[in-house]
């Protein structure tokens, strides 16, 4: 196999195992290993938030910057769980009590500066390299937090490196008032609609979209959706203009971590027996007794994820014998709605409000089906965990969900390739109909096991996608 080796700097706001609020961290954390298999060396630059500070003791200084948007900053380099990490230590921006994007009173007021600083340093590493002489051939920026990176490379020099911007979710655009233009070290002459201006202000995501040499997003279907007003959220025109440089590359999942064979009660496609034991343990943990399919939901509880549809479709599903275990956090009204369901359907609905990685593993191992009724879903990871664990995915036909799940319609059943149930549009009638199909499928043991096995055999690892990124990097370097 041809392996054109090169160096890639990944710039992101979160990365497994250091800090995670969503799938972005999983993907950023998985790429270095996946790309290493393709012969690429990737280092990841991210902010040193307060919970990460202790790690600095084991790291070495890459370089320092005296004035990084209002205070000193330095890049610290070291290895964490096999990943070459660069932590941006800038206490005035990141050393505070709270989450990476918000504190007790909502979003941090200086998020524009906080993530412009991250992007600035990413561009500086491209331009000048690190203390040890390391310099990237390609800079790979992720989402709005790193959106200014390609722009700074454009305006202040890139040292010859190419830039890629990956859109994980267009809903978050990094909006800032135009008055910050010079404070963010952006050239005033670039404040016009074809460059930095966005509805009278600034958007770090738009800046990245117009400046990056190439744009990727996390599934082929979302790449098309992004150019339409229903999904582009104001940026559809900007993306459509660059259609020739937009590629959808599906995410993978870490199949070493997400495998029913490494769980406490292991099973695989050849022997599903222990799945029933996992189901029993899961039922016990949520105090459930469910005669039909036990569905799970592991999700941020937000509008994007279609969580408000659950209370509408659940009564019929419960009446038909189904049950539901929920793990999630998010918008207060949706958390309350989930809690109400638990009270309304004791023994059939169990709810944990919170974030619990370990419990999520038990849920996939014990669940019969995983529900993903998203209004939009750039890629989605939980439906892929569902495939791996034979927890049959019931998903809305959008974005990466449409690219990963094969609907169990008669044709797919006859062809032996069905892996789940899909529905469209993301509205109660279609969702309810999919749940009725779930009940019927589950009641037919032979058909059910066939779908489970198809699902478990469906490849969801990083191999194909890593090769696609490697090919893109190679192309950019050429
Ligand atoms: P998004 O990034 O939009 O939230 P993804 O499906 O790409 O959606 O990724 C979500 C990730 O976060 C998955 O790894 C999922 O298992 C995990 N996750 C979401 N909510 C929870 C939770 N409450 N507890 C544990 N893991 C969670
Ligand atoms: C975003 C998207 C999700 C995707 C993840 C990783 O959070 O909402 O669909 O899987 O990024 O790319």
Describe this structure as you would to a colleague.
This protein is an alpha/beta fold. It has two domains: 6-252 and 463-477, 3-Layer(aba) Sandwich (Rossmann fold), CATH 3.40.50; 260-457, 3-Layer(aba) Sandwich (Rossmann fold), CATH 3.40.50.2000. Helix content is 37%, strand content 20%. The protein has 18 helices and 20 strands. It has helices spanning 23-36, 91-94, 111-128, 148-156, 204-211, 220-225, 229-232, 236-241, 273-285, 310-319, 332-344, 357-366, 382-389, 399-404, 410-415, 428-442, 445-457, 463-477, and strands spanning 6-11, 40-47, 60-65, 73-80, 83-89, 102-103, 106-107, 138-142, 162-167, 175-176, 197-198, 201-203, 214-217, 246-248, 294-301, 323-330, 349-353, 369-372, 392-396, 421-423. A nine-stranded mixed beta sheet has the order 3-4-5-2-1-8-9-13-14, sandwiched between helices. Strands 17-16-15-18-19-20 form a six-stranded parallel beta sheet, with helices on both faces. It has a three-stranded antiparallel beta sheet with strand order 10-12-11. Helix 10 runs parallel beside helix 16 (428-442). The longest helix is centred in the N-terminal third of the chain and has 18 residues, at 111-128. It is globular. The mean pLDDT is 97. The structure holds adenosine-5'-diphosphate and alpha-D-glucopyranose. Alpha-D-glucopyranose (GLC) binds next to helix 1.
From the alpha-carbon coordinates, what is the Rg to the nearest angstrom? 23 Å
The average pLDDT score comes to 97
The secondary-structure class comes to alpha/beta
Q: Spans of 5+ residues with little confidence (pLDDT < 50)? A: none
* Alpha carbon gap, first and last residue: 18 Å
Spatial ordering of strands, largest sheet:
3-4-5-2-1-8-9-13-14
Number of domains: 2
Strand-residue proportion: 15-25%
The CATH architecture of the largest domain: 3-Layer(aba) Sandwich
The tally of beta strands, per DSSP, is: 20
Under CATH, the homologous superfamily of the largest domain reads Glycogen Phosphorylase B
Q: Note the overall shape.
A: globular
The percent of residues in helical segments reads 25-40%
